[in-house]
Amino acid sequence: MYNITPVKADLYVSSKSMMNISAYMEQDKQIPIYKLSDIVKYIDDYDWNFEDYYISSDSEVFILKNKNIFRPDFYALMLGISGWMDIKVNDEIIRIDKNTFLALGPNHTFQKISQSKDFRSRTILFTKDFLINSSNNYFFLESFNHFSVHFKNDIKLNDEDMDKVIDLYNSLLFRRDKVNSNLHIEVIRNLITSYVFESAIIFHKELKINALQTHTRSLVFTEKFKKMVFENCLKERSLQFYADALFVSPKHLIKIIKTTTGKAPGYFINDAIASIAKIQLKKNKLSISEIASSFPFADLQSFSKFFKRQVGISPMQYRYKLGLKNTLD
Fold it and tell me: Does the model's pTM come out above 0.85?
């Protein structure tokens, strides 16, 4: 679905080294992970009905009531319009004011410090599951540098780039309150995808970084591992399999992946399997038993336990939540 060709450019790395980032992540494992819906409910005086994406209103002041530190399980693109908000991203204080463009991903820690009463932003939040509605390139979002903890995540936009971002945002805003069918959702999904690519182009230009992670030996190795997971996760869950295929020991594989991402290799294997399973369950063509047989589990019960552990609900509950109640399982 997404064929991305890397372009060559100079690497921009933030002041924190990879090892420091890894150590930092090790220190705060106890920081809670918030879902998109957990954050949206803290936005002042607005009732949002979608769990996988959020588009801020143009007429309301954005007031984030929650001041707790957390890790998002979603991606965020925030453009400051007026006023200011001070936030702490990992261990760095960032001020979002007019023309500030901020990109965050699931590996960041986030904490609101304070904000002015007139702070307004154009904010888009989305989960990976929402944006990746097919299994063709599951890890494409994690390849963008501006969502990575290894690169600078905030920039100041010039007037030309502001116009580009606002133009795309206005297209989303126009459709924000007019969702009445799956076709409308698909339009929003594709517009957010365009917004992500446009933001990558702008960050690339402003920071002189590659739009995709391709520059260090460890990052190249990590991308190779993710690609291998994507291609083999329906057959293999074994860490030994991936270590052998990459000609390293399991211990070395764990060390590299944790250094570059802050997460163990098993996270990516399990996350890919669970996400592909959700895609299959959404299609409503096969029974849960038939879907389970295509995954590397001994039986339906093992698949169901794995899915519930990863997603929080059983495969059948997941289908009921989507309103797919007519499939025999």
Answer: no
